[in-house]
Predict the structure.
Amino acid sequence: MKDIRLMKGNEAIAEGVIRAGCDGYFGYPITPQSEVLEYLSAANTKQRTGMIVLQAESEIASIHMVYGGAAAGKRVMTSSSSPGISLMQEGISFMAGTELPCLLLNVVRGGPGLGTIQPSQSDYFQAVKGGGHGDYKMIVLAPASVQEMYDFAKLGFDLAFKHRIQVMVLSDGAIGQMMEKVELDEEIPRLTDAEIVKKYPWATTGKTPDRERNIITSLDLNPVKQEIININLQKKFKHIQETEVRFERIMCDDAEYLFVAYGSSARVCQKAVMLGRAKGIKVGLLRPITLFPFPSIELAKLAKQVKGMQAIEMSAGQMVEDVRLAVNGAVPVEHYGRLGGIIPAPDEVLNVLEQNFIISKKEKKYEPATY
Amino acid sequence: MTEEIIIAGFGGQGVLSMGKILAYSGMMQDKEVSWFPSYGPEMRGGTANVTVIISDERISSPILNKFDTAIILNQQSMDKFEGTVKPGGVLIYDPNGIVRHPERTDINIYTIDAADEAARLGLKKVFNMLVLGAFLKLKPLIEPEYMHKGLEKSLPLRHHNTIPENEKAIARGMELVMPKHLLN
């Protein structure tokens, strides 16, 4: 029989990492993602799979513990929310420089600064464009349901080790806090030390007489060598852009107008698509699942079909820049966002699309939903 | 069938757990469900609300601003959510502590004296199940056997001995719900 449970997004990803053979979690509590650490702490992971769960003294300590675990070839992770992820940026850049695989979870809250604890999507630039220093990218997965929070635990680890890259699950307070049905898979056993030695020859598993020492460092003061390191990193990012794009098309086949939205905004837009279709408007939704690599080619294709694109984000306009780059002026692209922890309503975003593309400007302006 | 519900009241009234029991029961009956709380720094005494959706189809947005049914348990929630009921929808409220009663004429309005009944029974904890009974009387979406399974799933094992009194409260809530304003 299928194992189906009603879970919060934060609980689902915690259960997901246990079942995906995670070796270690290092984190520090912060709303709205504290349930991850809470769930893992209560899950008796040491006995269940041997997974270590540790509350570190800070976010900075957490990310460097992840660095250490990853260097040893272990499946390790941390999670936090926006202000905590900002603290981790130095460590993330160092992991980019050393090509260490790991899973990072950001359950985004409103910012800047301490901001609010309500859902937001204002960390898109930080996640997708590289929040730390240097020319690097992470694979960024944007779950839009509790099931995807669960699924992206395993997918995230698999991609991280496939490409030796940091994978960030960019969620938000709404997906983290809400409960939906989740279908769980069988538990995958953790790799044994011998399996890690065999699978990951780069890992610092202890020198043996038959090979050189493995040194994991991002420091090379010779700029010629450093340029080669950078070129190789860029080759990897290009390969990922070509092979790992994921997206969902909702009612796009005959669409004349298109919503572009990810995460919880995509759920709001999905309802708006239904409301629009009921009114006879041919509207669809393109939901990027990977934010890097971004579904630029798919959007460029859709730009030949639709009359306009409406990006909806809980930010002042971040993802919309990538939409505009993808369509390169082929169709008008508008942005609409709510800020500081406010979630737009389905009729509100439909109204915005109608105002921007369908109804003449002279008619009544839309009213933002109040809370 | 899709039923979009907001349950709103004080923290500590069992608003979130009522939503959770409803969502669990829906899931046991093989429905699609979602439960989205207003989460915040408030605990007891603050306002709390939860959006629950029960549907035969995949749920689009778990986040809504218009509802088929509003279950309202304090004045602040009445002020905030009376206007969010879709025309023709249902508003259920406990008049206890309500100073400004709902005024809409385009919806069906019902009362449930759950606070008084819970006090009379000496079982304050079943307050939310009395209210849930009122809802299930008006919207019989979930069969009693699945409500039972939902209670089993959502209550921790140490509280399973309270399931019979919770079920009794649901049945009593069904008897207590009273129409206040009905559409023709």
Summary: The first strand of chain A starts at residue 3 and ends at 8. The CA atoms of residues 89 and 131 of chain A lie 6 Å apart. Chain A touches chain B at residues 4, 6, 31-32, 117-118, 173-174, 177-181, 264, 267-268, 270-274, 343, 345-348, 369 (CB under 8 Å). The first helix of chain A runs from residue 9 to 19.
